[in-house]
Amino acid sequence: MSKINKKPIFTGAATALATPFKEDGIDFSAFGTMVEHQLDAGIDALVVAGTTGEAATLEDSERFALTEWAAEIIRGRVPLIVGVGSNSTKRAVCYAKKAREFGANALLAVTPYYNKGTREGIRRHFLAIADATSLPVILYNVPSRTGVDLSVEDYAVLSEHPNIVAVKEADGNINKLADTRARLGDALTVYAGNDSEIVPTMALGAKGVISVVSNISPVSTVRLCHLCLDGNFKEAEKLQLTLLPLIRLLFAETNPAPVKCALALSGIYPPHLRLPMAPVSDALAEKIRGALPFFP
User: Fold this and answer.
1) Which domains does the chain carry?
2) Sequential DSSP letters for 42-58
């Protein structure tokens, strides 16, 4: 199998943005403030309608409006990556087409969940998305949520499609990551999908992270990734370990409840969640409150 080098969509840190809600819908004013805060911090890319953005509970009209609003605010300053994941291939294809129409620069497609499709069915799912658009597609492998783990062989097959350019790898399997890099090289860009594993993932050739903690600490997350890109892993290790307590808190309960608590405590916007997500426990909220002053 030939290796075709593909240009990364971004290098560094991309924030998987939480979606601010009001009682009656999305708080677009708060969302705009959040985006500008990220851009001022030097973020390298932004992701909307992902897991952290509570995409599963967004109405289609909200999803499209969020994409359009983000594109208008960003104005090409960084890549806008839009989540198009669904366990319905037909719906995911629709989202992919609409994302381009409303200003996306790239797509993030999670492994279809719950259905637990066959290996062939899952591959055909991603290929249908890639066929439906000219935008670059990032595969999103997160078996803890979907119940399905993509294999190195899956990556090898899917990377043959010119529009499938990257994977957000959140399975925590460093051995598989090494095998992926050895087999595919730059035919498939790897992005860390777990904030606690940025340094080891980038040490094996990943180009950055699609991050939750950067909602709260974008400056530090950007610096961490660029230290790795510059080969300064000694300093990167120190920063990774400094961020680790906050990262642990943000995943102590199901994401995005903790990060929305942190955003509210930072004064960015109220912590509204959509059921079945619920606010974090009082004990965790106090721990997050105590951690926030230490992380820019």
Assistant:
1) 12-233 (3.20.20.70)
2) T-SEEEESSTTTTGGG-
